Queue: 2 jobs
Job 1
Amino acid sequence: MFLRIEDKTTGVLVDLDGQGNVIRITDPAATPGAQSPPLNKSNPTRAGPDAPQASLFKGLGDVNSSPWLADGRIGVKAHIEEFRNGGSALLPKNSFEKYFKQGGTVGRSDGFFITTRQAMDKLLLETKGDNALIKKRLGIEAGNLAWDAELVRVDVYNPLLHNARFPHGMELGANPKFRWGGLTSGGMPEIAIDPVKSGDFQASPVKRQ
Amino acid sequence: MELETIYSNSGMMFSVLKDKESEKHFLEVVCGTIGMYEVTIPLTREEVLDFKIDPSRIHRLVKAVIDNPSEIKKERVGGHA
């Protein structure tokens, strides 16, 4: 089995084998001789459709933009630092287009929840785009038909520039299974940030089976 | 059913929709965390009247949907989502 994921924004192609391993990344913006060699899980640094745009993920942000970095409690700063190189979320394309067009930002004002880019890459690789599995891993009801429509993956370039913080369980949508510690009930790392505006993220379609 | 958006709030990511044929109103809310999804529920006549008087009056219901999307949907059979 073979799966090809295309980032329509950049034209980057990511080929996966039947086991979810990244076989090759083809970046049309790179010179022919600089295309990715065959990849595997032992070479994860370029694994992911956003890898060719790594220059946009600059690891910016400090205690001024994310005061929680100064929190002295054990593990808090380390957890937020996990997001220094980018964070990701999934949402319906319809919602993304409607509210981004209207407000110029992505995410709810009470908190935009993201996981790390690596965790999102892993989720999409391990589920191989299987819609039912993605739903299960994210705790979305199997019967939720809205989720079956087109999805957009939002990758935030520098989350620590946007008031990165631990979810405290009081945000809207923090479900009853919320537990302190920065992990979802499915074990994915998560933080909340403020809504992000154009230029601070990239959006790409998610292909599912 | 042909729905038109009559009000939309990008900050809280919700919309009030109206079916052009039946004139029934619906509330569409983006719920979830890392994986976000839409939930749509029908509005009662009283909720529509309240909304028309002051759109901010619907915020309480929006928060209830975001906090308990499954329960709200079960309560209001007929949501098209």
Job 2
Amino acid sequence: MNSTSMVLQLGLIYGIVALGVFFTFRALNFADMTVDGSFIVGGCVASVAVGRGFCPITAILFACAAAASVGLFTAHLHVKFQIGDLLAGIVVASMCYSLGLRIMGGAPNVVFKSPESCRAMLPLFCLCVAAAAAYILCTDFGLAFRCVGLNRRLAKSQNISAGAMIYFGVAFGNCCAGAAGAFFCLTHGFCDIGSGVGTLIGGLAALIIGETLFPFHSAAGKITACFLGSIAYRAAVAFALHSDLPFLRASDFNMITGLLVVLFLATKRKQCHADS
Amino acid sequence: MLTVENLSASYGGGKDVLSAVNLAVAAGELVTVVGPNGGGKSTLLGAISGAVGLGSGHIFMDGKENDFSSVCRVFQDPHVGTVGDFTIFENMALAWCRGGRRLPIPWLTRRRKTIFRQHLSELEMGLETRGDELARSLSGGQRQALSLAMATARNCKVLLLDEITAALDPRAAERLMNLVERIVRQSKCACLAVTHGMHQAISHGDRILVVRDGAIATQFSGDEKSSLSVADLFALFEFPFANGRHDINVLP
């Protein structure tokens, strides 16, 4: 696979993560750290399902269900036990490491034949989930969901259940991460327990870059920006790593990631100051 | 429309902030509520809206006990009463679904747009032509008017106004209170308006309630209310009661 195809593939996969992060961090104002864990849970479930003969679509659906359950657990810790969103997410993400090992039968990684149809399914899946997300945000339910994130006190006075919206949003966000994890593992033909590390930062980077480069105002526009931002981010990282610059190495990936995020955040702040 | 019987309320099960309050507000009646800080005015509104737990007593909205879905509240801060990142129409759609199920159906249909425009036009502020603008582009007074429109959009039997003019300049405040009176008469809801503006309390509404030390100290209506001065009302905040009613003509 050439580097352009790889950029597009990874861009779409992490665009799904960015969409999930958009739902939790932006729309719901819930700092959900579970994503690193639900990404790998989704990957493990899909890999084991394909290894046992299930078709890729079924495997991805299993992965979505498993990751959504993980998200529901995080939401439950926050809503019922009043555990802060950050701490609840971190704890559950940590638990997902053990969960992933259990799913893979104790092995830290599994290798399997990558299903041919996965690469073709990916753009279609992205289109479907983006359309579904855009539709949800444009409904009465979506307005109530966004209100919980923007103005909790008004939401309460409008008889909107913040708890119910948190359950939905965190489950949906982690469902997206799980689906992305499933596609990541299925397209590469292996699943490693450490694959989830850095998923959240990748999703956040894609979200921030998308918002900065493509400042659309509509719900459909913001969701499109998640995927475009993810592709732009992967392209920038690929360029940096594969360039002939003598001082850059593959191990500089995390530093490049961080610097890109800082650059776009600083640009966004400057834009906001200029607008105001 | 609103009947409160022997209401007591406290925060977190502690000492009663409201004690044995009895109150009745008719449909289409505007009652202003005044009193010193900590007297229980906002707690009274909180108890009626369901935000504050009832220690004892009963609240009936149009005959139904504890029908909090028909109680609408407008907050002091216009930024709390609206969502700045929503358009005007989105804010109206949010309020339109209060008390009902929020279904995954498109929030803006042609029919709703017509209804929202009609409702916004009653404010006489030109907001009906700016429906697609963000609420944060509105002034404080316009945003409070939008809050009022949201509160009275649908199924509003009891309207609670909690110092809604506190953040506005005197001219905008007067305009808003005139709007409140008109909306209350048109929608036939029972309205309680807490205010620290004594002049507002005297010049607007049908009755004034003075709430002090967790109870309704006294009330004025009709000619008695019209003949009150600001100094008379201020005096009621401090002087002790005699037989449950303060005689403002008696020297302390």
